[in-house]
């Protein structure tokens, strides 16, 4: 019997898929960072 847990040489373990909550949090953080950059640029133009 072959053991599916063992990896053949040269084969990497698959990266675990992030949970939906972690993925949503990452997307929101990227979005807020982009908004902060936009706000900074707009403030510079107004002054």
Characterization of this structure:
By secondary structure, the protein is an all-alpha fold. The chain has a domain at 18-47. The protein contains one helix and no strands. The N and C termini lie far apart (73 Å). The model has no long low-confidence stretch (mean pLDDT 85). Residues 1-25 are annotated as: Disordered.
Main sheet properties: none
Q: In angstroms, what is the radius of gyration?
A: 21 Å
Q: Globular, elongated, flat, extended or rod-shaped: what is the shape?
A: elongated
Give me the strand/helix succession: H
Uncertain residue segments: none
Rounded to the nearest angstrom, the distance between the terminal CA atoms is 73 Å
The helix fraction, in percent, is 55-70%
- Structural class call reads mainly alpha
Q: Beta-strand percentage?
A: under 5%
Report the strand count: 0
Question: On the 0-100 scale, what is the average pLDDT?
Answer: 85
Count of runs of 4 or more consecutive helical residues: 1
Concise account of the structure shown:
The chain is mainly α and 47 residues long.
List the helices and strands and how they pair.
Blueprint: H1 20-46
Region (Disordered): 1-25
